[in-house]
Automatic annotation (TrEMBL):
Residues 123-140, 319-330 form the Tyrosinase copper-binding domain. It comes from Chaetomidium leptoderma. This is Tyrosinase copper-binding domain-containing protein. Keywords: Metal-binding, Signal. Residues 1-18 form the signal peptide. It comes from the Eukaryota. One of its GO terms (molecular function) is oxidoreductase activity. The keyword Signal applies. The lineage of its organism: Eukaryota, Fungi, Dikarya, Ascomycota, Pezizomycotina.
Length: 398
């Protein structure tokens, strides 16, 4: 607030300001950090008061919270412990029957198959945030309970590396990264995103495009999909809904794009999202107003990764970095809820179908979410609305 006043009085005095224009994203980054601190304080207060009033043994308390941290704040050893656990999930046998997803080869694929099967009922719907909260948590539990991981699910703070994601600790290709960019393929055209009957969104190609050849996942094979994969000639490949579950082994490709990260998932975008007043607006800003050309921070993160499978809405959890992206999506919902928890805890907006096509009822607190063979069991929306309640007891730090 102080800067504009100083600036206008300087103009009144006729003083020529020689200093370069301030970078709005650095102010926004500080504001984002402040909002996280406010959310933490609100959560602490809430837990202190519920602990005092509850006699239940399983009540979530401050000292039971598991803290999810940004990738770059983990030690290199902890990052490797995480990627080793993911590699373990990729080695464990699938539980999904061949009759459901004949191409599923691993526990990691169980999660991917579940996402593929439910895509049209979990995006641009009223359960989008809760479904992905439950999905990410169930994955975190599988890493911990089936693969000996003792940490929390890390997240990708898009705002920190918006100018150069490929060099960030997440994508730098080192042993302690989530693997690097795809091999550079020159001369690629843009990709075109189609969303219902809305005007298509054309996004520039990134700085990779080929197979990922560095870091922990360089030998990882994507087994399922594609279903709706934008290519760099403007076309979209894949068989569409109801397909992509047969065995289709191929390398993982990435096409990391600083331009997309800068345009849709920078600190200003994050703060704008967190300062919305209703869940309807929060979701709209997060996913971008359809037809506006803005894909929001959700699309911004996905298409910053790009490639195959992460450019494919159905198959995107086939790239393990999906779960770091959705950790950050969940972080933004957590902050937004904590800033006015009483009012926002149970807010839901949207129907049961993708952009309400075909038309369907609104999602409510009694709706059941079931991740099938990924695990977790059926659970109601009501139990997914707070990270301090139901199955959850976690928080986020910087
Ligand atoms: C990839 O596979 C090769 C050949 O089996 C192996 O030598 C190498 O250690 C593997 N790399 C990673 C990062 O898993
Ligand atoms: Cu999803």
């Amino acid at each position: 607030m102080r800067l504009p006043i100083l600036f206008s009085s300087a103009v009144l005095l006729g003083v020529a300001l020689a200093a370069p224009a301030p970078d709005p994203t650095s102010d926004a980054l500080a504001e984002f950090q402040q909002l996280i601190a406010e959310a933490q304080t609100a959560q602490d207060d809430l837990l202190t008061s519920t602990a005092a009033s509850s006699k239940r043994a399983n009540t979530c308390t401050k000292n039971k919270l598991l803290t999810r941290k940004p990738w770059g704040s983990l030690s290199k050893q902890d990052r490797k412990a995480y990627t080793n656990a993911v590699l373990c999930l990729q080695r464990l046998p699938a539980r999904t029957p061949q009759s459901v997803a004949p191409g599923a080869r691993s526990r990691f694929d169980d999660f991917l198959a579940t996402h593929i099967l439910q895509t049209l009922n979990i995006h641009y719907t009223g359960n989008f945030l809760a479904w992905h909260r439950w999905f990410t948590w169930t994955y975190e539990q599988a890493l911990r309970n089936e693969c000996g991981y003792t940490g929390a699910q890390p997240y990708w703070n898009w705002a920190l590396y918006a100018n150069d994601p490929a060099s960030s600790p997440i994508f730098d290709g080192s042993d302690s990264s989530m693997s690097g960019n795809g091999e550079y393929i020159p001369g690629k055209g843009p990709i075109t995103l189609l969303l219902g009957d809305f005007a298509p969104v054309v996004l520039p190609a990134g700085s990779g495009g080929g197979c990922v050849t560095t870091g922990p996942f360089k030998n990882y094979t994507v087994n399922l999909g594609p279903i709706s994969m934008p290519l760099n000639d403007g076309s979209v490949v894949g068989g569409g809904p109801g397909t992509g579950l047969t065995y289709n082994p191929r390398c993982m490709k990435r096409d990391i794009s600083a331009a997309i990260n800068k345009a849709f998932a920078n600190a200003v975008d994050v703060v704008k999202l967190l300062t919305q007043n209703t869940i309807a607006d929060f979701q709209l800003i997060m996913q971008g107003v359809p037809g506006s050309g803005n894909i929001g921070v959700h699309g911004g993160g996905h298409y910053t990764i790009g490639g195959d499978p992460a450019g494919d809405v159905f198959t995107s959890p086939g790239d393990p970095v999906f779960y770091l992206h959705h950790g950050m999506i969940d972080l933004t919902w957590w902050v937004w809820q904590m800033l006015d928890f009483k009012t926002r805890r149970n807010q839901i907006s949207g129907t049961q179908t993708f952009l309400n096509q075909p038309a369907s009822p609104n999602v409510g607190l009694d709706d059941v979410i079931d991740l099938g063979y990924a695990g977790g069991g059926p659970i109601t929306m009501r139990e997914l609305m707070s990270v301090n309640d139901g199955p959850f007891c976690y928080t986020y730090s910087l």
